[in-house]
Amino acid sequence: MKKIILLLSFFIATLTSFSQNILITELNTRNMTGGINVNVKTVSGTGSGYLSNSYTINGNVIDLDVCYWFDNTLPILYFDNDFFIPITTEGNYTINVHIILSSSQVTCDYYANTDNQTTSETYLSATQFESNKIQFLLFPNPTNGKLEYTIKDATINQITVFDHVGSLVKKINTVSKDHIDLSELNEGVYFLKIQTDSGILNDRIIIRK
To answer: Which residues form the Secretion system C-terminal sorting domain (predicted)?
Structure first.
């Protein structure tokens, strides 16, 4: 009986430990116009949700904190989030990603740090991509949200839109052949990842109403 109780206690403790962890399963970076996009895929052993993120840049070292709330329920959840880090200086950057748990669902209270991973990315200015750039023009910019575009020798398959902190705000899977409607978005700066059959384009727009 003691052995059964001990095994049961160990199982409960192990399950509880996993349920309070959110771990990084994949970490990718991408050079974009104006900065670096960091894609973080995580798995959670507890009922949880994305709460907030913050970052600091010290020289060529970027620290990104990604915060999730949790409530101690048990379904396993998977998250896939993009975070945009604005960069003004070209160079090689080390990016440290810290996964933070919060017991509050309102503001991140840094209840626990459950995982850390490090990657790197070389940031290049837009002018250095000119030789590889698909002939693409997006206008007007600034815009009220209704954009027109021209593109040569390529077809757009998908457009994803990120806000100024790198959070995904819109994904367009069926793209019109000459215009993009983002009029439902609030005023601000947005970053577009444009996937074509000839490569990926990155652009920045300003919405003013």
So the answer is: 138-207
